[in-house]
Here is the input.
Amino acid sequence: MRAICCFGVCLREYEGRLDCQFYLPEHRLLEVRMHNSGYPTYPIGNSHISVRVVDGPFGSDLKVDEYKEKGIPLVRVGNCRTGEILVDDELVFISPEKHSELIRSEVLPGDVVLTKAGHILGYAAVFPEKLERGNITSHLAAIRPSKEINPRYLAEFLTSDIGTDQIYRWGNKSTRPELNTDEVRRLLVVLPDSKTQHILVIQMDSARELRNAKLAEADALQTGMDGYLLESLKLSLPTENKRRVFAIKHGRIPPRFDPHFHAPSFSGIVKSLEQINSPCLAELVSFSLDTWKLADTTESTFRYIEISNVSPYTGEARFDNVLVTEAPSRARMITREGDIIVSLTRPHHGSIAQITPELDGCIASTGFAVIRPKNAGRVDLDYLWCVLRSSMCRQQMLQRASGGNYPAITEQELGKILVPTPSLVNQKIIAAEARRRRDEARKLRAEAEQGWREAKAQFEAALLGEPNA
Here is the structure.
């Protein structure tokens, strides 16, 4: 199929936008399919779909220092994910008085919350009964559905391909994707009868449960690696000690004086590792200083790995092709096959990846430490990757990091973490099990995403029919 590079727009189709991407033929074709679906189609602002569409307060109307530990729940962008509002250990609160001041942005059970800005534009979920009432922040919109539409159906529709295509059509701006409330009101919704809405919601619920089960199984494979590793090393770590009041001997204070570094939960891990062969990371690896010079490149693009390109769940990296003229200032570290890259920001999240053959020669952000084993006869590369991603090493990274919301570690401090190093034979056995689990987890995640894509396609087909029908 040839891409259409030249097209015309009738004056009557003018929507107040002058950007070409907004009028691409595929957007018009989608609208035609919606209106020809056999079901009525209305914009969200129509009374058949909603009775109220609002966004949260901007600017000085709500400040971070007004957040409370208890009170009225405040839903932020990070709380809204497709299909659910995250509430466990994620919510912040505001006082009832502040809630009254911001009553315009109040949300009630049954309201549909939609993210309308940033890299998670287009996530939607229904505000749950258990929260009773709440408020939203500025990067969210709240839609109060009419009696004709099932809130769950509306949330599923907005996150279907039909909904997200429209959201990104309206949201694509010159700087970053973002919708305003008027644009939310203009999104079109296909409105089938209540029975059809109910059936579609049940089907999507079943697909989501199956997807989540496979993802949970994949996560269990990888989180279970910690237990396997400890058993293989014949290592027993102390139970987590969450004491916030403790004392240390004067001789243990240097070179760090901050209480965080000396917390009992960290010191217990270090003491256990000191009982077995656990050299410092700096004894096993060197930190690469190979840097890329933008002025020396003759290519128009380069392969770039930034921290978001490394999955903290799988420890796998990917690259983006970036124009040399748009190279970020942090794109400097040359990577080679066999290297391991470790995120220096929030290192305890596990964004630690191996540079595989297809990533050889990629340029990594200076937000990574690029490490290379000093002696291949002492440490197996796959084992080193596996053990660095274990909780015992990631907790040491957190211990040696500094900073509040975005703890970061220096290469010097990273080199001081203790790495349990059994015989090469045992390292290879552990590494083989890590690869097996990684491959099985990758397969489960692929199956989960494939099933979810098929469910979304069936949702769309039930409303619009097949694209070429």
User: Anything to note?
Assistant: The chain is about 35% helix and 15% strand. The first strand starts at residue 41 and ends at 43. Residues 278-421 form a domain with the Adenine-n6-DNA-methyltransferase TaqI; Chain A, domain 2 fold (CATH 3.90.220.20). The two ends are 17 Å apart (CA to CA).
